[in-house]
Amino acid sequence: MCDDSDRFHGGMLLAIGLLSWSSVVSWLAGAVVAEDHPSAPDAQTGLLLHLDGDAGDASGAENHGRIQGPVTWEEGRFGKSLRLDGRGGVVIDGSGATHVGDRSWTVECWFRPLKEQLPNAVLVASGWGYERMWYLQIGEGGRLVASFSGGHFSGAVRSEDVSATLFDGAWHHAAAVLDRQRGGEVRLYLDGKRLAAQTPACCPPILFDEERMGIVIGNIAPWYLGKDGYRGEIDEVRISACVRPAYTLAADSPPPPASLWSQRVAPALDPALSGSPLTLQPQTTRIALPALHPARGNFQAAEELQRWLRKGSGTTGGFEIVNEAAMESSQGQVILALGRTGWTDPAELDRLSPDGFIVRRQANVICIAGSTSSGTYHGAMRFLDDICGVRFYLPTDLFTSSPNGAAEIPTALDLRSDPFVRSGMISGLADVPGDGGWWRRNAAVRRRGGTHQHNMFTLFDPARYAATYPEIYPFLDGRRHIPADHLDQAWQPCLSADRLVEVAEDSAVRYFRRQPSAAYVACSVQDGHAVCQCEVCSGVYAKHQTGGLSRAQAETHGFSELYYAFIRRLALRLQEQAPGKQLVALVYGPARIPPQEKMPPNVVLFTNFHIAELDADRILETDPATGLSPLDYVLRRCNSFGNHDWYQGNGFLIPRIYSGYWSRFLRHLAERVETAYMYAEAYPNWGLDGPKLYILMRLWWDPRQDVGLLLRQFCHDMFGPAAEPMREYFTALEQLWVTLDNVKGPERKLFVWSRQFTADDDDLAVVRRCRELLRQAADRAATDPQKQRIALFAKTFDVPATLYEFTAAARVPRQDVQAFLQRVEQHVLTDPLTFYGAGPTNDDLRKRIQAACDTATAGGKRIVDD
Fold it and tell me: How does strand 285-289 pair with strand 334-338?
């Protein structure tokens, strides 16, 4: 076997037989410059694939590839290489380390292509999504091509015909460079020599809100793998977030010509349309997308605005969507400018949170823009809500308010909005046919990071750390316990291990490198009470076994002490290693005793207060022993606070509305902290709880919202002349929950039907009053949509109302039970808007309702024949 030097010179001799001497001299000069050894990673390396028999990433950024399609491994430029036949390739999901953004960029690889090459064979590509991408390819006519695109504007360098060099049977080195120090100039190199561009090329920032870009080797995008790809060998693929020294130009090099995108100026405002309201007419209103920062949220916002403005105006045309770069003038037009267009101030947008936005009128231009495209989308939804009256209360168009008539923009419109809940997540939102993306429209899924809970396995991944740091794992049952997978919740790390903080720091820094847009990393306890029993940890537990505490209680106090001391040390390190990022600590399970001292400002204390039991659990009630409420005790110990609530519909067959509790809780928070983190498990019973999730999303954004006004608005929009009985109906349902669960008890539990339907005479009177209110509303409803909405709530409420009656009755006629189950089968199980789980796959819901009916009739003992 030849060493690298022999292979290199062998390739040179082969080239001499195929090239003219001038080509050989040029190629030899370049080959001296190109690195003639395997690359080594450094801080700027985002991807490094040696391709020595696998697609593992040697950069340290863990962007490991997946082989897709047929490939073989051959002797390569260094070690092994990847050989492709046009059908296979490598897919890399990517991470923050592969996100170009506004950074300089260098893409390099060694390759040996077959002469029988399809046109435009791509070596390496990345990006996608609204033309944001880059690629290095062998183009038509034997040209080497490097292209970078930030969306509307792009820059590509195409060489002259270099096929004599490319297909000489030797290995060659290609590099594509994006140089931010030179205005985003794009350059292309072959074997270390710069190839002249036919025309100067440059590229604006390539931005993705999620700050990650996927990569594929062998084709233009992963979904094209399988045909028409690159044929030949490829080795040593390296991507760097810089201009590598070999490709840096001299300081006195002539500057590139100014780019088109840098010269772009937004069309002037139309002063003639200032000073009076603007009516949004189909032919004179245009929706402008940004030229420099195209992203999914901007396009979704444009589509939503166009759809609902057309519907309100009773037209199928107009409200044209255009790119700002295509606009020559705005005179006589109303422009809804989305995202970072030329009419916005980038510095102002940068000061917003990722979900925040501005909605501002400037003469004839209304800017709707966020710091990210997600923020722009939220701004568009607020514009539809506040200005156009389009509100998405429940899934499907049936529960969307869409007033007829052209919307009018007031003279003064200047809104800057950041959500109080900076990271908010509603889980369990099952797909409802035709829901239109309710969760997105209402900002219900906007978590600014990964999980906040039970992630010790991920943080201390045994595959990475167990061999080197076995001491960080606990002693359980007399031996070291190394968890096998993430399903193992019966362990916690050894919090007294000397190097635990060091390992946690390494893991957190790795995480933020891969997820730069994440606001936090969680260091949250597992969902179990098994804790380390080593000698040191046990000694800490033992010192708390005084004052009447049991061994289990002492263990909880001791573990909590160790846990928050560990969190404190880790947080202080991350202030230096990950500035601006936060560390989540879960006040839960064996760590449920909050820290005694205030935590560093980058720590988020995440609790599990049950808002449904706000009064029963005395969450806001002052404790005489501490002078603080349970919530305030935690708030005194952190700058940032989060809470996980079980806002369940699934598991309940009774209305579970507590918007007033949420309002009290969030207002209390807003008086004490600037922002909060929230997570709520929903699994909604839409037909029982109505607008409770819509109201909650508005409260998460702004706790000052009046829940009574929001409910009144919902009823007015959805029920017209039947608004008042429906408002009374939902108000009564909320009071029923508060009374049964917090005042009288017992606490209503998931799936515990014996508790859910216990009610006294006063409670039954409320249930019967609710039935009567639904009948009144049905009589007053004026339109088919209003009647359909009331019918949904009536047939859903029939389930708990009937089960309340069955539970309270001494005897239940068999025919009543049969009629009830028949109504459930025909009207409830078939409609996914009734209960969570209703629809085509409704066996679980059917079984739950049957089980609840059996419990309500004491297992059938109280069922009688007439």
Answer: parallel
Alpha-carbon span 728 to 470, nearest angstrom: 61
Residue 14 has pLDDT above 80, yes or no: no
- Residue at token pair 């809970």: 453
Nearest to 373 by CA among 315, 425, 298, 321: 298
Which pLDDT band holds residue 34 (cuts at 50, 70, 90)? low
Give 689-709 pLDDT, tens digit per residue: 999 999 999 999 999 999 999
Neighbours of 772 (CB within 10 A): 12
Torsion angle, CA of 576/577/580/582, rounded to 10 degrees? -100
Quickly tell me which residue has 């290995």 as its tokens.
171
Q: Is 279 helix (H, G, I), strand (E, B) or coil?
A: strand
pLDDT digits (tens, 9 = 90+) for 805-825: 999 999 999 999 999 999 999
DSSP state for residue 255 in the 8-state scheme: P
State the DSSP string of 11-34: HHHHHHHHS-HHHHHHHHHHHHHS
The token pair at 279 is: 């009516």
Q: How far is CA 437 from CA 383, 421, 432, 866, in A?
A: 17, 21, 9, 49
Task: Let me know if 125 is exposed, middle or buried by CB neighbors in 10 A (0-12, 13-18, 19+).
Answer: buried
DSSP, residue by residue, 366-422: EEEEESSHHHHHHHHHHHHHHTT--EE-SSSGGGEE--SS--EE-S--EEEE--SEE
Instruction: List, for residues 343-393, the tens digit of each pLDDT value.
Output: 999 999 999 999 999 999 999 999 999 999 999 999 999 999 999 999 999
Asked whether 148 and 206 are in contact (CB, 8 A), the reply is: yes
- Closest C-alpha to 677, from 632, 644, 638: 644
Task: Give the residue from 698, 641, 701 showing the smallest Cα distance to 672.
Answer: 641
Distances (CA, A) of 352 to 224, 313, 853: 38, 33, 52
> How far is the C-alpha of 280 from the C-alpha of 335, rounded, in Å?
9
Q: Are 62 and 514 in contact (CB under 8 A)?
A: yes
Q: Which residue matches tokens 């255009």?
A: 322
**The whole model's pTM is what?**
0.92
Can you give the C-alpha Rg of the chain in angstroms? 32
pLDDT value for 21? 34
Q: How do residues 86-99 score in pLDDT, each as one tens digit? A: 999 999 999 999 99
Handedness of CA 831, 836, 839, 845 (dihedral sign): negative
| Contact (Cβ atoms closer than 8 angstroms) between residue 167 and residue 113 | yes
What is d(CA 81, CA 78) in angstroms, rounded to the nearest whole number? 7
Between 509 and 262, whose confidence is greater? 509
Phi-psi region of 211 (alpha: psi -120 to 50; beta: other; left: phi over 0): left
Q: Are strands 603-607 and 582-586 parallel, antiparallel or unpaired?
A: parallel
46 pLDDT band (50/70/90 cuts)? very high
